[in-house]
Amino acid sequence: xxxxxxxxxxxxxxxxYWGKVDHNLNIPTNGSISMNLSGATTTTTVTFDADLEAxxxxxxxxxxxxxxxxAHLDRVRQLAGIETRALVISDNNFPASAxxxxxxxxxxxLSLAASRAAGLNLNxxxxxxLARSGSGSACRSIPDGFAEWLPGRDHxxxxxxxxxxxxxxxxxxxxxxxxxxxxxxxSSQGHRAVQTSNFFPARLSVLAQTLDTVRTALxxxxxxxxxxTVEAExxxxxxxxxxxQVEEKIxxxxxxxxxxxxxxxxxxxxxxxxxxxxxxxxxxxxHLICEAKYQTGVxxxxxxxxxxxxxxxxxxxxxxxxxVVKPT
Length: 328
Ligand code: DP6
Prior knowledge:
The protein is α+β, with helices and mostly antiparallel strands. It has helices at residues 67-80, 103-117, 124-134, 187-193, 200-220, 223-242, 257-271, 295-309; strands at 3-8, 11-15, 20-22, 27-28, 32-36, 42-48, 56-59, 62-63, 86-92, 146-150, 159-164, 171-177, 245-246, 249-250, 277-279, 286-291, 312-316, 323-326. The protein has a 6-stranded mixed sheet. Strands 2-5-10-11 form a 4-stranded antiparallel sheet. Strand 7 (56-59) and strand 8 (62-63) form a beta hairpin. The structure holds ligand DP6. Residues 13, 16-18, 26, 32, 101, 103, 135-137, 187-188, 191, 281-282 line the site of ligand DP6.
């Protein structure tokens, strides 16, 4: 069997996936919209080898047991009708400590490399479905550029499709990394805890409208409408987290002191005429969003503030989806 190397990028959600109707299949409660981030890449090589007695998985040069990866290889074996064990080598060009969740790019690259190495030639929809089974948000790293995850009702109907290609809109995402430790509450726990938030039904009741506004503004390249809705949507997700309970803990607070300092600064820069908005995932880091022509202005404002906070940043453009890089 062949050795295949695939690459994929993490994606940033403009409308968030927060809550599942099926925790095993990662069927989300609502649709979501995202952009692939060029600034971070996962590269994964897979070989199915009849001589192996067990899967051998090396991530960022460390060989260890990785039950989620092994379970994903089982899904691929089942699809391909094989039993052969696999050799997997996966590397992120961003350190684990960058504070950027790697599960989306990891499961997107793994789905493509493993399925091809197993002799399958899945189309984008089938690949997105496979990636979603590994980690929900990974389904959005399959299509090129901007993606919308159609929530669906079951395994076959829940996948992401392209909303617009990477060159549709020259947006820039400036990811400000302020804390690099592991988050206190894993996103899988956060997804479960939404049911404990009294605000969750309110969030769901406006989501169709939020998705419409973000989709329409993105397609029309209407930056003020886009930015304002994306920022409000991030706050709505965090309102659910704040009003959720995990075991005896009251409220999931993903922000750190630096998160709040950055939020206040962005509000001030915007009031001073710099068109920049932000979004925040299940962690303390802040992703600043602007159009290409304002990138330098945003970097000039951000760099000294971030240096004072001991943080750093990287810049992304809209990136392609998962692709095979070897053999070419
Ligand atoms: C806050 O995809 O990491 O980034 O399906 O349990 O692996 P699992 O969850 P995951 O959740 C991502 C949550 C988020 C929002 C988003 O990316 O839409």
